[in-house]
Amino acid sequence: MAKQEDIFKNVISHAKEYGFIFPSSEIYDGLSAVYDYAQNGVELKKNIRDYWWKSMVQMHENIVGIDAAIFMHPTTWKASGHVDAFNDPLIDNKDSKKRYRADVLIEDYAEKLNQKAQKEIEKAKARFGDAFDEAQYVATNERVKGYLDQKTAILQRMAKGLDSGDLADVKALIEELEIACPESGSKNWTEVRQFNLMFGTKLGASADTAMDLYLRPETAQGIFVNFLNVQKTGRMKIPFGIAQTGKAFRNEIVARQFIFRMREFEQMEMQFFVKPGEEMKWYEYWKETRLKWHNSLGLGAENYRFHDHEKLAHYANAAADIEFNFPFGFKELEGIHSRTDFDLKAHEQFSGKKLQYFDTEENRNYVPYVVETSVGLDRMFLAVFSKALQEETLEDGSTRTVLRLPSVLAPTKAAVLPLVKKDGLPEVAREIVDDLKWDFNVAYDEKDAVGRRYRRQDALGTPFCITVDHQTLEDKTVTIRHRDTMEQQRVAISELRGIINNEVSMRNWLMKM
To answer: Which Gene3D superfamilies match (predicted)?
Structure first.
């Protein structure tokens, strides 16, 4: 655990030191769980967003995008259920005065049981080798089966208590499991209570006439209320999707783990409208498709897993998370939900307007069902960044810090370095920058010895360093250095665009899906 904590501290430190993420309003001591994306962070974030958008919208003829307003009519949130049901179960520790989400405390306990089971499985796998039958081992080994059965029973009981509103039983479960405050070790808990997460605000010129509004807690409702507008103007036929990226806001009382859980965050999501009765087919399709998208980035298939929900949201008939192995363990990265026809029917009821699709093949109107994929952009940033940050020991015994970002996402694709700041080398380097910047985000770096510049670009995640030296003046060749292998090649200046493009183009990366 200490090692994981150290890794996470290094991630936070590196993000600030190299211009990726700053604490917001830091000169005024900042705001809890609010962060600013710095000059390199904003580029990485944009590239992740673009990678998602290209795969989701541009590569699908039947998916289009919108950008709905953050402010929406307040009845929207009554219809969606957020006014009455958008709550977190909170519990306070009386001794440490720390506040926690009761469901997270229980889920973390259940995850420890799962980790114990996985540890036993890994030991058996190493012992039996190729002959190991994991399914049979899990079914017959009493210890492993006990861990997993206990985990399932705990999560099912928690889900039942939250669904029925029996918060007393949720607290009783915490006490029976002897769950302690992570900071103080105290088991002296308050009652569990629900807390609504929406931020309220006002719209209007005076206090007397101002309308009560909410900052949107999710981006999905902007898609649902525009369903008919998009369908008719785009002449969309079922099945089709509407995608959107944008800010959402939640008054997270227990905001923690850097940018993993923030009060202002960004979502990338798509609502896929399907014929009633076909939602489970598409639910399975999007589960598979979204996992392929994540794996295309090469962060390691072992770092992803599916988690099926024990407790379903009020709108869903099936739900699963794609979880990622963050420095603090496996946590939700993306949700795939079968939302049924809840949202469109609710907005029909509250607005008095029909939100139906006329199926020309069946000659009838119906309210479509919806399958949702929703990934947190900030969480995606943290997943990519934390997995990419590595300390590497070299052959000569020295170490280097390298940010092995997928090159398609790297903020800067290449840095151009004149070997010395004289003899016309800076001028040639500037010419190369001016040529390449039409196609790529490139940097010019002339400060310090070339070795130190290499290390600086490694820490920034730059895939290529291009060194201009005296030989360049003679034959128009340069040295191109690869970040991951540190291999150096002598190539013609005219070849640079093709080499870089081959490594960073979205086409090449998305074709891995």
So the answer is: 3.30.40.230, Anticodon-binding domain, Bira Bifunctional Protein, Domain 2
Q: Is 8 annotated as a binding residue?
A: no
- Mention every residue, 6+ apart, whose C-beta is less than 8 A from residue 397: none
**Residue that has been written with the tokens 């806001």 in this structure:** 249
Instruction: Name the DSSP letter for residue 71.
Output: B
Is cis: bond before 327, omega within 30 of 0?
no
Question: Confidence band (pLDDT; 50, 70, 90) for 345?
Answer: very high
261 three-state secondary structure: coil
Comparison of pLDDT for 97 and 272, the residue scoring more: 272
Question: What is the per-residue pLDDT across 281-319, written as a single tens digit (0 to 9) for each?
Answer: 999 999 999 999 999 999 999 999 999 887 777 778 899
Which tokens belong to 455?
A: 């290390």
Distance CA 221, CA 215 (A): 12
Q: Would the annotation count 508 as a binding residue?
A: no
Query: Binding residue per annotation — 196?
Result: no
Would you say 400 is a known binding-site residue?
A: no
Q: Are strands 464-468 and 414-418 parallel, antiparallel or unpaired?
A: parallel
Query: How far, in Å, CA of 337 to CA of 446, rounded?
Result: 50
Distance CA 461, CA 455 (A): 10
Q: Is 261 annotated as a binding residue?
A: yes
Query: pTM for this one?
Result: 0.84
Domain chopping of the chain, boundaries: 37-86+197-388, 91-187, 412-510
The verdict on whether residue 372 carries a ligand-binding annotation is yes
Q: Annotation-wise, does 308 bind a ligand? A: no
Torsion of CA 98, 99, 101, 104, to 10 degrees: -10
Please tell me whether 240 is known to bind a ligand.
no
Is 101 one of the annotated binding-site residues?
Answer: yes
Cβ–Cβ under 8 Å, residues 418 and 426: yes
128 annotated as ligand-binding: no
The closest alpha carbon to 339, from 317, 309, 308, belongs to 317
Is 375 known to sit in a ligand binding site?
yes
Query: Is 267 annotated in some ligand binding site?
Result: yes
252 carries a ligand binding annotation: yes
405 is in an annotated binding site: no
262 is in an annotated binding site: yes
- CATH number 3.40.50.800 given to 412-510: yes
Is there a binding annotation on residue 67?
no
Give the strand pairing for 63-65 and 240-249. Answer: parallel
The count of other CB atoms within 10 Å of the CB of residue 235 is: 7
456 among annotated binding-site residues:
no
CATH for 37-86+197-388 is 3.30.930.10
